[in-house]
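target protein:
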Amino acid sequence: MREILIRNADVVVTMDATRRELAGADVLLRGGVIAAVGVGLDVPGAEVVEARGCVVTPGLVNTHHHLYQTLTRAVPGGQDALLFGWLQTLYPIWARFGPEEMFVSAQVGLAELALTGCSLSSDHLYLYPNGARLEDTIEAAATVGLRFHPTRGAMSIGESDGGLPPDALVEREGAILEDMIRVVDAFHDPAEGSMCRVGLAPCSPFSVSRDLMREAALLARDKGVMLHTHLAENDEDIAYSLAKFGMRPGQYAEDLGWTGPDVWHAHCVKLDAGEIDLFARTRTGVAHCPCSNCRLGSGIAPVRVMRDAGVPVGLGVDGSASNDAGNLMGEVRQALLLQRVAGGADAMSAREVLEIATLGGAQVLGRPDCGSLQPGKRADVVLWDVSGIGAAGSWDPVAALVLCGPGRVRDLFVEGRRVVAGGQVVTVDVAAIVGRQNALARKLRD
C-alpha cells in the first residue's frame, strides 16, 4: 500500500490525550495506520493529498444503527407515532424483507454514513425474515469499505406471548444462540485494525426473554465479544419494565449480566441517577441517538450528567425509519443543541461533542486503535472542506464543523484506503444502488 501524505491542512484535530489542534499540519498514512502527524513532513515518493482549506479529523464513529431501515423512510402511519406504535406499523413491512433487501439497504446506509464522515459503524440487525442472515450486511460493508461492527440481534417473544413483535418475526431461542455462535466463529476478527467485529444483541427487554438475555451475556463473555441492546428509550419502556419485571431497566440489565465495559446500550433517554451511577461504576457504554429520540418524541438523554459521572458515551444515527436521515455529522450538531436546550448554552461545547463523535464512539465500541489521529492508530481520516459556502464567514473552523458545516466530507480514508474522494463515494456505484433501493421500496409499498 502506497504512503499517502495529507498535506497543509488548515487544522488537524488530533483527539490525542491533550486534544491538540495543529495549524498548517500534515498527516502521513502508511500500511493502514497513521505514521506521523506534524508540520512540514517531507516524504519522498508518497502520494500527496492537498488539504489546504480543510479541517482534518479522525473518522466519526456510529455506535447504533439499523441499516435495513433505509428501505422504510417516511412510511405513512409511522411518521407521527411513539416508539411502540411506530414499531407496530413497521413490523409487517419488515416481515417481507429478504437477503437482497438487507444487502442493498446496508450498502445505501453505509454509503450515506461515509459521505457524512463515518469510518466505523455498528449495526443492530434483530430480524431475519425469508432467509436473511447477518452476513448480508457484512458483505455489503465490505463493498463500501467502512469498518464494521455488526451485531446478531434477535426477537423471541411474539404477540401471542405478550411481546410487541408479530409471531412471524420471532425466532426460537435455541436457534438464536446457535446462530450467534455461527456468526461469531465465522466473521468476528478481534485483531487490532479489524474491519469486522461481531457483537451479540437481543433486541430489547420487551422482545426477548430473561433467559435469552442471560444466555447471550454468558455466550458473549465466553467468545470475547461485546453486548448491545436498547434500554430505557422512553416512558413506555420504563412502564413496561416496571410492570413486567418489577424493576427499572438498569437494575434488570445488572441482574442479567448486562453491565460492564463490554456492554453498550442504545438510547438511555430515561436513566435515573442510580442507573447513571451504575453505568459509570461499571464503565457500561451508551449510544446517544439525538435525532431519533426527537423524531419519536422520546425525550432528551441526560448526556451532560452521564459524561460528568464518567459514563462512556458515543453517538448513533439509529434506524433510518426513525430518524429518517443517516447523517452522522447531523447527529453531532443535534446532540449539542439538545444538551443546551436541557442545560443552558454552556452545557456542551462544539469540541466536546466532536470528541464524543470520534474518540467517545471508539471507546464505546472497544476500539482503542481508532478515534484519534496519532502515530500507530488506524488510518481513518476525514477531510472537511471549510472553504465553501457552508462555513463562509466562520472564525473558528473546528467549531464550524459542528455549528454550520459543511455537512458532507471531501475525502474519507478508512484503513488508509479512499472511500470518498472529492465528495463522491468511490467504492460503490451510488446511483446504481440507490436505483435498486428505490425499486425495492416501491415493491414493498405496492
In short: The first strand starts at residue 4 and ends at 13. The radius of gyration is 21 Å. The chain has a mean pLDDT of 96. The chain is about 35% helix and 20% strand.
